[in-house]
């Protein structure tokens, strides 16, 4: 919706090298909607990154599996 913000933040966890992939363990997505703040963590993922909101108001981003494989996601707020 108008004024909503979706992005990512990092906890204090250092960079983790998984195979050939550089994965920033400890990255988390978030959504700010009005006065509500929601953390977005894909289940069992090392990292979740929300890039923003698409034209339909869905959160778009990526997450990294424990083996370093990166996948895209679309989530309803």
Task: Describe the structure using short key phrases.
single chain; 77 residues; mainly beta; 3-stranded antiparallel β-sheet; 8 strands; 0% helix
Report the radius of gyration as a whole number of Å.
Answer: 13 Å
Q: Overall mean pLDDT score?
A: 85
| N- and C-termini, Cα separation | 9 Å
Number of self-contained structural domains: 1
What general form does the structure show? globular
Biggest sheet character: 3 strands, antiparallel
Biggest sheet strand order reads 1-4-5
Give an account of the 3D structure.
The protein is mainly β and 77 residues long. It has one domain. The chain is 0% helix and 56% strand. It contains no helices and 8 strands. It has strands spanning 5-10, 16-18, 21-23, 27-33, 36-40, 47-53, 59-64, 70-75. The chain has a 3-stranded antiparallel β-sheet, with no helix packed on it. A 3-stranded antiparallel β-sheet has the order 6-7-8, with no helix packed on it. A two-stranded antiparallel sheet has the order 2-3. A hairpin with a 2-residue loop joins β2 (16-18) and β3 (21-23).
């Amino acid at each position: 919706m108008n004024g909503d913000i979706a992005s990512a933040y990092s906890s204090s966890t250092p960079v983790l090298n998984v195979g050939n992939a550089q994965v920033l363990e400890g990255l988390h997505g978030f959504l700010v909607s009005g006065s509500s703040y929601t953390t977005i963590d894909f289940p069992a993922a090392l990292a979740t990154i929300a890039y923003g909101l698409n034209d339909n108001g869905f959160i778009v981003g990526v997450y990294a599996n424990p083996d370093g494989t990166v996948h895209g996601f679309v989530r309803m707020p």
